[in-house]
## 1
Amino acid sequence: MRSRIHGLVLACTLLHVPAIAQEQSSSLLLRLSEPLNQPQNPSVEKPSPPQSPAPPPAGQAQATLPMPSTPMRLTLQAAETLALKNNPQISVYRLLALASAQLIREEKAAYYPNLYGSLTAVGANQGSRIAAGALNSPHLYEKAAGGLTLSQLITDFGRTNNLVAAAALRAKAADKNSIATAEQIRLAVDQAFYNALQAFAERGVAEQTVAAYQAVSDQVTTLFQNKLRSELDVSFANANLAQAKLLLLDVQNNYQAALSRLSLVLGFPSQQNFELMETDTTLNPPPDSVNELVDEAYSNRPEIMAQDYEYRAARHFQKAERDLLLPSVEALGVVGKVPFAPTADGVQPFTSWYGAAGVNIDIPIFNGFLYPARSKQATLRTQATQEQLRDLKDRIADQVRTSWLNAITAFNRINVTQQFVDQSNLAFDLSQARYKIGLSSIVELSAAQLQQTQAQIQLAAAKYQYRIAQSVLRFETAAP
């Protein structure tokens, strides 16, 4: 877009038109050059509706984007609320957080008894025995029975406790990741919202530029028809108008792209037409000290909290894997009923009811170094998680410092650009006065006018870029 503006400046240096045409084009977006520290009432001062561009030549079609007839009025706060409600990424991480909470119940299941039923029926060859296979009882009896088996963990010397603690910490980490995603969505909304406002302001400048140069072209054409200007002046005027229209096409495309991006962030499946309302027009300078911002980020950033929970969960899992080398004690019990009791060799081996209870102790002795390897792996992963936490803190501190410097630069850029606007307005007024009394040519007046337009565009961009820098700094420090 800046190349289009520089092209307009180059074209205007070759254009000679009356002072009346320059006076008509001198009112380009004067509202953008107003002081930025004065609060505005959004219900009173609204962006003026854009003027329609000049119609295309006869017989030439012009493609337009279909937009809803009634735009949706939207403030920044309403946009953030709508995005947090509709954006699918919010739902994804909330569901993942809920799924992680179920891991706690899975690990706690070891605290409770395991009860299951069994139904068994066997048809055996009378007097036969099992003689091959693993060690077992060789007796075979015809039988049919049903029963219940109960097992209850007595102790595994802390392994289950560590597994439950690790699952709880991972669930907290997933919840913090969900909060971090919400903050990222808020930042994306702020960026898309202010980019759309900037594109709208630039479109207004481009539309008024096209209207002004259309008037210039018409006047030069009229003067040429009356033999007061040459055909070369008409050619330069039309070339200048065509380049202004190219600038308008660029900013229109940028504006539609900004609306598309904003619609996506807000969770709409298709592009919407918005009337963006800027409710807060006061620009406050960034904080003076960056060290306090870094400390604030360390305390508030959900990513750091999530990584800290992951590290603590890894430590508990490391202890749980180490506890695999310890014994586990389990109580067992069975009870059942045999509906009939056949005899074997005239002896009745079964009674109708049966039951038994006992205690089982599993002592790991050797399993091919499986448990030591698992314990070592968990230890190394814990150390890696700790290093990831340290790296995350370093990167966040760097991001906070960079965002703070960018905010300071963007804020100072507003003041410098405001001076540029003031000086370009003064230069235009002086050039216009000199032209009226015949002390300068149209070249000087045209250059001053284009410089004024460029300054107004840069001022609009500087204001909204500082808004974005503020949003980024707020995100980096997790400020409310």
Note: Strands lie at 72-75, 114-122, 143-155, 274-277, 328-337, 353-362.
## 2
Amino acid sequence: MKLRIASALVVLSLIALAGIDRPLAQTDLPMAKPETVGVSSKRLERVKAYIQDYIDTNQIAGAVTLIARKGKVVHHEAQGWRYKEENQPMQKDTIFTLMSMTKPIVSTALMMLWEDGKFMLDDPISKFLPSYKNQMVLENGQLVKPARPVTIRHILTHTSGLGLTPLKPTGATEGTPATSAPPQPAARPTSLAEMVERAAQYPLHFQPGDRWEYGDSTDYVAVLVEKISGQSIDDFLRTRIFEPLGMRDTHYNVPREKVNRTSAVYRPLDNGKVELFRKPEFREPTFGRGIAGLNGTAGDYFKFTQMLLNGGEYNGHRLVGRMTVDMMFANHIGTGKPVYVRGNGYGFGLGGAVLTDPAKAPDALSIGTWSWGGAWGTVFWIDPVEELIPIMLIQITSYSHFNIRPLFSVVSSQAVVDSLADQKPKVMGYETPR
């Protein structure tokens, strides 16, 4: 008996070291048989085959995919390699660098403060960042006065014209050519607030609200969270979002004890195959930002997206109100401002892209779908009409050479098989009277 117990302990220790027990970290996800929520098990097999083809052809090393419908996870799959060079398989709880999938979370944090009555969406950011009160706009090589102030709505929708670094030479006075850039400080900033304060000397790239430009706007969202709440963005997200939602593996700085769960990052070669770009290893902590920086798992990100799909509540914890989610999912930029990162058929809400025209969009989802992705291949969608959440996490430094992301929306949505007659009419995901 003693020998059996000792042997069992050894086996359990080896399992723990190998990380084989780690899927237990995801047992709190609301799993269900696909057919109970109108999804076909057989058609879901296409999702696994789709990802496996990219792995077999060495276009990606591995992936974790998750699909949920009507609040239930019907597909959660780990395929390929977390760290191929060391024969480390992908696990369901592998931690990925989320890059710009940080932005929707940080934007939600600011909307939580909006609900507290701390500001109006059309308040100028100079209300909280006084050094931005007299910014100029660079137009045709000259500095001109802004037609309107940069507002909080502008930074939430990437229509601000702001940038943390000058895109063109600056240093001119009003109405004169801009010919030289101001000297850059030698020391690296020690906080997000310091970084933003330094950038106040740079002119806007365009008149606020005139166009959509992907850039640094969400760093301004994060610094407003810090100034209004009195907490660092790291502390605010942890205490107000991650802990209530049970997002235990989402961090700006991955703890040393979790490094052996992080994914290696790969880069594509000219032949379309991948090679190692960055191996999993501990990195010294840095301050949190709004544009990127978070790391997390598919299971954790599902909890965040399901919270929004539920109208602001998940597992008994309400973060925002239903009408706030409606506001976030509305298109705030109108027409004629291409959201070029997402593709045709998209507008932009508060923190995420909004699908406005399925006939033009690359993704096979419904009007009102809210989504975003990260520079290293991660992507999610929240389809409020179908109550569908597809999430795909991969790690590749460029994905512009293939269509793995939009086609993932196709192989996810094709598994939905319930009849249109079973669906109630919805606006922004919420039931409306017939």
Note: Residues 2-18 form the longest helix (17 residues).
## 3
Amino acid sequence: MHTETDVRAQVVELAREFAREKIEPFAAEWDRTSHFPRDVIAELGKLGFLGMCTPEEYDGMGLDSLTYLLALEEIAAADSSIAVSMGIHNAIPTTMLVKHGTEAQKERWLKPMARGGLLAGFALSEAEAGSDAASLRSQATRDGKDWVLNGTKAWATNAGTADLMMIMVRTDQPNARRGAKGISTFIVPTDSKGYTACKPEDKMGLRASNTAAIELNDLRIPAEQMLGEEGMGFVYAMEGLDAGRLGIGAQGVGIARKALELSLKYCAERKQFERPIAEFQAVQFKLADMATRTEAARALAHRAAARKDAGEDITTYASMAKLFASETAMWVTTQAIQLFGGYGYMRDFPVEKLFRDAKVTEIYEGTSEIQRIVIARAIRKA
């Protein structure tokens, strides 16, 4: 009989082997060419990594959040572009369907998502509605048994590569007072007439992950493809973002961990003044701080995961984990470049890519400033 710990160890080892063999050797080339390796995502799906926390009754693995974060960290250490596609899919669309989908929606969408047959994404932000997401303007209008969607979404992960997108639009009257209560969520297959993924963004980092604006032009969708209740879409999005922020925490830890591993190896081999630079106290102190912050970020993310598995509210802890891990990833990769010196600034050395990949973790799924607002509100109420 396998214990939960045994299963966790097996899943994490499988993720580590997959990352080492199928992702890490190709990550630099994918980055250079902005190539999205859909075949690799499909392989992850076949192994169950796109349905890690989905209940077994819906063809998922039914694993706990800690196991999911550990596996995601392994993928992120190899290439955070792959990790973000895996993380978005597992966290936001999956969470929304599990909590608020009808049985028919779960049968049609959630099961193939869990099996890896469908890759899902999420579209909330707009050009003028980033941190203030509730001010979005994309509109859905009821027309008989259908809804007709119009508008433009921005910075959507998997916009041009997903099979299915969870899209937040307004369903209140166009002249109504704009606010969170007038937003609803729709399940939109990306082959729907009227759905257009724009040119992929030319990004600083995560270049193998597809990010693009989405144009909705008279996109007609059956009413049964609204998720949950009308007007509750913003609430569902925030629930999904709680889970998503845990994933960003694991992504930040994976990036920081990899930067530390590379730095330790380099500092043991690189010689100056006739000895390895790892023997210099200034270098040792820097490495010690990098290791400590990485471990602290991991512990905070795992604490939030434990609360989630216990059925407790995680909004504050997810924000803490995302904030600390993202800033840790940025700080650790900055130190790694400093330790590598001139080589660290060159694209021939992998710490340069880690630095570029780390930056966006402080921005997407809620900037560091937004996380601090969430945390500050919570501790003031405590």
Note: The mean pLDDT is 95.
## 4
Amino acid sequence: MECPHCHSQVTTHAKHCKRCGGVIPSSQHLLEECGLTDPAPAASPTKPSAPSPARGATRYRFARLGDRFLAFALDIALLFGLFAIVDAWVFMRWGAFDGTELQLTIASLVIVVALNAALLFLYGWLLEAACGATLGKVLVGIRVVRTREGSALSACALRNLLKIVDGLVFYLVGAAVAACSEVRQRVGDICAHTAVIEESFGIAARVSAIVLWVATIAGAVWAVPKICSNNNPIQTRYLSQVVVRIGIKGNSAYLRIGDFTLDVHS
């Protein structure tokens, strides 16, 4: 194994480099085992090994949980913009809006949940399979890599599908598993044989990610009122029962779900 600071050879589980005194990360040997960096050559028994120069190969470090959470928050903010556009369109087509009250039917809620889930899955799956990173990951400087040979499409599909498990209890399950893992893998990473590492993206990639992120949020702010101004509901034979009512009456706003009513007075 190599020291990540001076690249001299150290023992597999060394905590400090004898040559430069640098701290060796506890998971450094796993980088070589996963194939994310080249293993150090064995020292010659007949000739003292000279300090090895820094090679051109990229040195990888596993992403910190704080960076992963920040990337997740940026992705969720972008997705909420997309969700707002999709949800507004669905509610105007399969719900009803009379200016003071929005009525949501069972059909509208089922369609919204299905489309939002599909959008969440496709966003993570396609971007990670094609580029190794979502927009949030590009902005933070981390990306997804495979720890063994296989298809990127299938690995990223499984990784994103298992967000159902990792996301339990407000993503506490995924955070707890990653915190206990030496390579900071959540359940999806373990099953898909992937890991999240630090990456230095170029200026062009970061600027493009910023532009797309801002454009999506701004587009949602502009599009949602436009969509809500055009109420053209579709009459359905099934699942047309109104189950949620949201509206304004006088100086108060209300939310009614079945027999439950929540009033907020201004």
Note: Strands lie at 96-97, 101-105, 142-146, 194-198, 242-249, 252-257, 260-265.
